[in-house]
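Minutes, project huddle
Topic: does the predicted pose make sense with alpha-D-glucopyranose bound?
PN asked that the exact inputs be recorded in the minutes so nobody has to dig through chat later. Recorded below.
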Amino acid sequence: MGTERPEERTSRRDLEWWRNAVVYEVYPRSFADGNGDGIGDLAGLRSRLPYLRDLRVDAVWITPWYSSPQADGGYDVADYRSIDPLFGDLAEAERLIAEAREHGIRTIVDIMPNHVSDRHPWFRAALAAGPGSAERERFWFREGRGPNGDDAPTDWESSFGGSTWTRTTNADGTPGQWYLHLFAPEQPDLNWQNDDVRREHEDVLRFWFDRGAAGVRIDSAGLPVKDPALPDMRGVSGYVPGTHPHLDRDELHDIYRAWRRVADAYDEPRVLVAEVWLAEADRFAAYLRPDEIHTAFNFDFMTAPWDADRLRRVIRETLDTHSAVGAPATWVLSNHDITRPVTRLGRANTAFSFDAKSFGTPTDETLGTRRARAAALLAAALPGVLYLYQGDELGLPEAELPREALTDPMHFRSGGVDPGRDGCRVPLPWTADGRAFGFSSAADDTTASGPHRVRHDTAAAPWLPQPDDWGGLSVAQQLREPHSMLLLHRDALRLRRSEPAFRDDAFRWLEAPSPSVLAFARGDDVICIVNFGTHDLALEQDADILLASAPIVGGVVPPDTTVWLRTACSTAFISTAPIGIPSDGAQPE
Ligand code: GLC
Ligand code: CA
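Predicted holo structure (tokens), as shared on screen:
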């Protein structure tokens, strides 16, 4: 208090880096391929670290890179302590973490407490050891129901479609017990009442924290604990919070408190980031209490339609919910599970829901791109943590892939109805032309070891086909275009870092001249205005524009545009008679 030396203040700010960081999500399989086999890898990612530095991201969250049969893009882990040979090896992961840090970029790794792969040694041991064994206690093995045990133990439905239960076969070939999997059959659920499960995960955290990982992203964080009575769910209309058979059970909080103790034991405390989908704000906030998880993804924001009222409400509720527990908000526009913003925002229904996905939805990508640019500046101007999914900074659309190219279990387990998530996982274009638009042409890596020393001279095709016109969206091309999506992102992230107004949480709503305009102030002198309406909006004459998602000519903000202004004046910054709308401000929309 008062006597604190400046360097102490600096270091505290540094330790709290996660409160206003820009975190870039890397889906390694699709980021950059360093050895020409058509699959992204750690050599490719290492070679592109300068790109991420120049974009000015503070951290990367890398989706699973562990040894895995890849039944669900690596979210089926066979061994947390080794890297899948597709991507590289452990030594290379350590080098990557260290090199990223030299570029000022921290690394967050992905941990899946809900399940492991069916090829994980624990699950294989459980199958071998048979019913009643300690090995089976780490999972949810049950006898079937019905006369011969032919019916699944519960009526639960998997989030990938179909039952959550798969029957095993005994050593003598007879049908055996069933095991639980909330996702694919290749992802058996762990039993968190079992001490081995708890100990193992805390060890895995330490394993990666000891190797320099700055934090973990906790996959499906609301799902790991189950009601041991395994009650049926069909016909139940609702649950008292905390009593759902497999979502948001109260016992989860103990697990994450223990993880927080592990994270806090480091000189630079490590950070926990949760993937938790919950409708009730207070239940969500409970995970973010000071002795639990640091931050969680804001799926309300991510799934919201492109609508001023809805986004105003989501932003207001988000800020209220988080300030009640002292946690920073997060702003997420997409990830590796979600329809790309350029596509989603160019459709009649701009909200995201897994259930609404279908093949052949009409899309206006020009409109979608315009809105995605505006959405990017909105998200980047809000206080808290910004998440950016690889390729969104290039404005990649969701790719419409031929059915025979699809790989996602979500597609197959929906009976082919859901297009699945491959469309947002297509390998990135780095160059305007050339093989795989530069995805597979990263520099030779003389330090790679193991299988990665072998370069494939005859390059394989990328693991998912890239649309023919993606050269125009490539990094190289966009670096040449002053108004490209990439340079818009670079400018936004540069200002987010350099403007003092963005450094703390100060946020104030401003009165807007129309309900279809969002306006707020950050700090003393930065204002963000988003025009969601269909009419132009006039700025005060002397407005000083810091950045805009579309050209501002003569002080006019066109529809679907975000602008950042510098002004010392906190009110009446917009004329009360926006061009094209009635002067009473009522907008007939
Ligand atoms: C999370 C991941 C998703 C994965 C699922 C099962 O939702 O983001 O990609 O399929 O968990 O691990
Ligand atoms: Ca590769």
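Observations noted during the meeting:
- Residues 442-448, 575-589 have pLDDT under 50 and may be disordered.
- The first helix runs from residue 6 to 15.
No decisions taken; revisit at the next huddle.
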